[in-house]
Write a structure and sequence with these properties.
This protein is 12% helix and 30% strand. A 12-stranded mixed β-sheet has the order 2-1-3-4-6-8-9-11-14-17-19-21. It is of the alpha/beta class. The chain has a domain at 34-162. It contains 4 helices and 23 strands. Keywords: Leucine-rich repeat, Repeat, Signal. This is Putative cpij004912 membrane glycoprotein lig-1. Residues 1-19 form the signal peptide. InterPro entries: CDIRP (IPR052574), Leu-rich_rpt (IPR001611), LRR_dom_sf (IPR032675). One of its GO terms (molecular function) is signaling adaptor activity.
């Protein structure tokens, strides 16, 4: 009997389910003296029963700041079923539980901010026409996955992940896309198989990656005003001339080592064709031998007399 009791206890321990323990905040609004007053109400939910009894306002942003989640799908389809603006942060921090796979069900969310949560996969099974803002910075994503299914997306932030390749064709059917940020990944290549037109795109950030070459000949972003490409390993960009008529905010410095002859043509073109501003990031660098510095930008004299075009 003693042996049977011990086996029963061991089996119960092995199959026990850890309850969700979360710190959840939600914005609240009230009226005082004719003015709308905003404050954030935060509370610790120690178990599933507390979560089950919670009443969250579906019209207000909800923020899970940290804690442990046993089953993210069960949580989303339970206590948080009506929430459309969701923020989950720091689930990868010590004392919390990482979310390895996050499901984005069609028509469910309008805004998602999932930062530093240990996410390795976004599961997007079908086309979605509701989600407009997606921020998945500081996770472990190695690819964009099925992001192309998010047809109504306006802003996409993938900073601080583990991307190595990006196919611009994934953004082809996102007519409302306003901002793309892919900074601080490990991107070595950006491909474009066909001409891609994103009429509303105004900001593109591919900085702090490992790009050695970039061809933008197939890109048509007529409203682009901000283009950050600093801190890569670029020496020139193919197909740049005449491509982005409204760009005036450009970051090209850092670890790039531009071909001097090509870079001179770029500066001449930019200064002639538009209001011009160039942002320099980081401290001045020691340029390579046989190179010179323009502000914070290193450029290298070409080893041969090849023709340089912008």
């Amino acid at each position: 009997k003693m042996l049977l009791l011990q086996l029963t206890l061991l089996l119960a321990a092995a199959t026990s389910v850890t309850a969700d323990q979360l710190n959840i905040c939600q914005d609240e609004f009230s009226t005082k003296g004719g003015f709308i007053v905003h404050h954030t109400n935060c509370r610790d939910y120690e178990d599933d029963a507390a979560l089950a009894g919670a009443q969250f306002d579906e019209d207000h942003d909800l923020w899970i700041r940290n804690g442990t989640i046993e089953d993210i799908g069960q949580l989303l389809n339970g206590s948080l079923y009506n929430i459309t603006k969701l923020k989950i942060t720091d689930m990868a921090a010590p004392g919390s539980s990482p979310i390895e796979v996050f499901p984005i069900d069609s028509g469910r969310f309008s805004t998602l901010e999932l930062t530093n949560d240990g996410i390795g996969e976004l599961r997007i099974p079908e086309a979605d026409y509701r989600l407009t803002h997606l921020n998945v910075a500081q996770n472990k994503l190695k690819e964009l996955g099925n992001v192309k299914q998010l047809k109504a997306l306006k802003s996409l932030t993938f900073d601080g992940n583990e991307l190595e390749h990006v196919a611009m064709d994934d953004f082809l059917e996102m007519p409302d896309l306003f901002s793309i940020s892919l900074a601080s990944n490990r991107i070595k290549t950006i491909s474009t198989e066909q001409q891609i037109m994103i009429v509303k795109l105004r900001a593109l950030d591919i900085s702090d990656n490992q790009l050695t070459q970039l061809d933008v000949a197939q890109w048509k972003f007529p409203q682009l005003v901000s283009f950050y490409m600093h801190d890569n390993r670029l020496n020139k960009i193919e197909g740049l001339r005449g491509k982005f008529p409204n760009v005036w905010d450009i970051a090209m410095g850092g670890t790039n080592a531009w071909d001097c002859a090509w870079f001179d043509k770029v500066l001449e073109y930019l200064k002639q064709d538009r209001k011009f501003a160039m942002k320099m990031f980081g401290d001045p660098l020691d340029c390579y031998e046989e190179s010179r510095m323009e502000g914070f930008i290193c450029c290298k004299n070409p080893a041969n007399n090849e023709k340089n075009t912008v």
